[in-house]
Amino acid sequence: MTDAPTTSDQNVPRAKMLRVGLMSGWSFGAAMIAVLVICPILAVVWIAFNPTENIWPHLISTTLPRYLSNTLILMFSVGALSAAVGTGAAWLLVMYRFPLSRWLEWLLLLPLAIPAYVGAYALVDFLEYAGPVQTAMRDVFGWENSRDYWFPQIRSRGSAVVVLTGALFPYVYLLARAAFREHSGTSYEVARALGAGPIARFLRVGLPLARPAVAAGVAIVMMETVADFGAVEYFAVQTLTTGIFSTWLESNNAGGAAQIAGVVLLLVLLLVGIEKTSRKKHRYHNAPKHQRPTMKAELRGAKGWFATALCSIPFAVGFLLPAAVIGAHALDNADLWLDAKLLAALGNTILVGASAAIVTVAAALFMVYGVRLTGRRLPRLLLPVTTIGYAAPGAVLAVGILIPLAWLDHRLADAILAISGSDPGLLMTGSAFALVYAYAVRFFAIAQGASDAAMGRISPSLPMAARSLGRSAGGVLREVHAPLIKGSVATALLLVFVDCVKELPATLLLRPFNFNTLSTRVYEEASLENLETAAPAAVLIIIVGLAAVLILARSNR
Fold first, then answer.
1. 508: Cβ–Cβ under 8 A, 6 or more apart, which residues?
2. N or C terminus: which one in the chain shows less Cβ crowding within 10 Å?
3. Any idea what the Cα angle at residue 546 is, between residues 542 and 552, rounded to 5°?
4. How far from 339 is each of 31, 196, 234, 335, 346, CA to CA, in Å?
């Protein structure tokens, strides 16, 4: 016999009871997605504090100081140079009109399409002993070999700084340009009326107003510098990221790799804190009716062409040189475009990139909608924490994913073998599952940000009206939100896919055996000095990257 409903149960409307249960389901799902995103970071911390073999004292006394010092030098050098280049270019293009300035305003975004490791391969190929520059010098001056002249060492830390700056300065440029634009032109006019010259206006008015934006851009540049593997490894610069690879793969010590990864995480968290603090301070309160656009001054003659040259140099280093070198190799070896290995790498890239993009965006949509739907505190607290994956380098995520998944994979295989009598092999680490998971964690912040912004633009009255007409929470998402946010979802899918295509460290560590993507094919062939063979795959990566830059350019008009 079933129990009769209590008086309190009878007083609760059935619709409200169903809504409470449904909200709990969305809340639980959102919390689980957040946990899955955060787990690799927590796993790195756990493994670092509980290694099988503690080599921390050995690392401190031998390689760790070198790894750390090189990383810090690269961070601050690339950050300072990117700040100077990005802020200077933004100031010139916002405040002045000169030859090609309208073109350069958008051309300076194009270096974002070139991964730093592709830029490194192109620079070495262009400047090495057998490259066109030194070959032309020997032909012109009659030198016979390298003993007859001096040329700077190409594979060096200085070259790494130049390449990384060329690839990363657009982050500072974008934020600084936006900061200079959003201030009323009256500030600069008053400074001019008080006798401040161009340099004084920049140092006393423009730079202080844009300082939070510049600091945020520099923090992003530093995080990307810490995360880089392909460029620094090619230039033979031993950093914390290359240390993770050598300690794990060469010394076969996962615990030591996790301990180095922990140091990387500390640096990244510090930079994230700087970036967040800068954004909190980035507040301006100019009323729209008092805003006056900045009137650009005309630079004529030598001054105008000098400004054009200053803005053209970072574009040439960051995009024009790599694209020209790689493109020339790709055209000279047209037969390689039909190579079976290239086609296989392209297919693998599309497969894992598209899978990761769909999984990441779907999970982000579910989580953002679940957090908005529920009043539970835990999902709301976990939502901003999930963005840490974007700041964590791919090598760090690989440590936090592969080791726990390998343990779980072996236990699962043993259980299936005991039950069925057949060995299924490694289901997760032996397939592209781990790679897709790493991509989803690494780029979850992109999908989450796009989903949150898109849903935030929808008036709350629309879903409330749909619920009042009897639509379920899932029905509201499907019938109301989905048609309104489909453009933002498509953009998020493309951006995540592009980043998956360019990701190198996580792909190298987590790919299944004999499984190449475009990025790993470029890395393997370039490491063997076969840039001609690597060029077609690199061109495909650049083309995909340009799609993301075009989206970025449209959103920053």
1. 229, 245, 520, 523
2. N
3. 145
4. 45, 62, 25, 7, 11
CB contact at 8 A, 371 and 379: yes
Which DSSP category does 432 fall into?
T
Q: Are 466 and 440 in contact (CB under 8 A)?
A: no
Q: Burial level of 441, CB count in 10 A (0-12/13-18/19+)?
A: buried
For 353-393, the pLDDT digits (tens) are 999 999 999 999 988 888 887 766 766 777 777 888 887 88
Distances in whole angstroms, Cα of residue 156 to Cα of each of 122, 231, 242: 15, 11, 15
3-state SS assignment for residue 97? strand
| Diameter over CA atoms, the chain | 105
Residues paired with 297 in a beta bridge: 96
The CA-atom distances, in angstroms, between 356 and each of 269, 352, 386, 437, 552 are: 25, 6, 16, 7, 21
Task: Enter the pTM of the model.
Answer: 0.86
Task: Output the six-digit token pair for 388.
Answer: 């840490």
What pLDDT, in 10s, does the model give residues 33-77? 888 889 999 999 898 888 877 788 888 988 999 999 999 999 999
Spatial distance between the Cα atoms of 65 and 58, rounded to a whole number of angstroms: 11
- Residues paired with residue 97 on neighbouring β-strands, in sequence order: 298
- d(C-alpha 399, C-alpha 445), whole Å: 20
pLDDT in tens, 197-242: 677 777 777 778 788 888 888 988 998 999 999 999 999 999 999 9
Q: Are 402 and 61 in contact (CB under 8 A)?
A: no
Residues 6+ apart with CB under 8 A from 310: 88, 89, 92
